[in-house]
Amino acid sequence: MTEPLFLEIESPQGDAGYYVQSLWFARSTTDGEIWLPSDAGSGIVFLKRGNAKVDDKPIMQPYDIQKHSLQSKKFTYSNEMMLFGIRFQPAGYSQLEALNHPLTQIDKLSCISKQVTRCNNLLDFKKALAPYFDFTFSRDHIADFTHAFIQRLAERQTLMDALDETPLSQRQLERHIKQQCGITPKHLARIYRVRKAMTAIKMDTSKSMTQIALECGYCDQSHFTREFRGIMRITPAKYRRCLVSRC
Q1: Global pTM?
Q2: In angstroms, what is the C-alpha Rg of the chain?
């Protein structure tokens, strides 16, 4: 699978990083296709030039809001495509929407999309976003619990450990996670465990799948394969072959 794609990514610091996972810019040199791994996040993309699709659905202009990523998605693009994006933390967009932040307001997104027509790189995009990038307002304490829970999963904690360390009842947390992330805590934990397995496969392509399965908390290799395919849409073995073919 060819990937003639130039990509710039930057993770914001401070208050912005609480809600925004990354800002990015992509430019293609030929037609191509890549697979985007699931991270339970959402995003807003601004297509300046060319054509692009996510799971065969065209990215719309002047901007397109991408829903929570619950499975790996196929991203296809045309020659000379130019695309800018904001990637939110798993609950980031919903929390900003509840606070009526400018990045969730239609009129502000329309203004940003007009400025994007003059952008040619990530630095230009950051300058266009600057007037709308104030995150110094007060946060809802429930959002803090959700964020802390997600961080624990990202740090490779088990679902039960992450639940035990959150000062909310399991039912309360499930309701808030479902509302803010669009999925249950259990589904969120599945995504992060698969991402842990992806890292393990990348780190050592000689390690057996059975060993990786056990290290990542799966009861056996068949369970690992089912879970991995359910999130990534390919088997662990095929994912490994794709990594090796790129070397």
Answers
A1: 0.90
A2: 19
